[in-house]
# Entry
Amino acid sequence: MNHTHALITMPAILMLAVVIFAGIFCSRRETSAPFSGDRLTVMTINVWSGLDYRGTLIMGEYEIPGIREKRYQALLGEIRRLSPDIIGINEANFLPDYVERLAGDLDYDFIFHVGVSGARVGRLGIPWNLREGDALLARRGMGLEFVGRKHLGGGGFVANWASFHTEDATQVLVGSVNAGWRKIFVAVTHLHASPGDSAENREYLGNLA
# Structure
């Protein structure tokens, strides 16, 4: 889903990549139960912030709180039905509140990183209601750990403790889990889907009109 406004153009493609480290641990973590299944199940979903991405001090919202809560409960029910081992989340807003609640309701561990939030220090900043980003959730006992976050594109500065940017910003968030004797690296990213603003693309789109 593309969102274009004066402050930020939101990315639109979400992708979850799972990379299995070709090696064997010498010992297991005592705090993590060994993975007992014969396969690892992964789910990825754009939960959509519900914002219209227009505004400077505060952004408009498409949903009233009651509708947003119904959508959240529907998501919760579907995740419980599918029961994935690992979940990649995009467009979670407001962070960290959204993923803290989701992980708590599911009894999963989580890591997150803010992706777009305008000018902000901690929870305070503008747009007031935008502190959006990506997250990874994993079943408790799999030893989910934060590995790193890489800025992929867009100007400015974005961190969990502060941010300052006025244009689109993309990132990849990487975590790791333990599955039996294997360490598995999991990456979630949210990429831009619109074509580049070039003369060639404008001519091509004009011919389609």
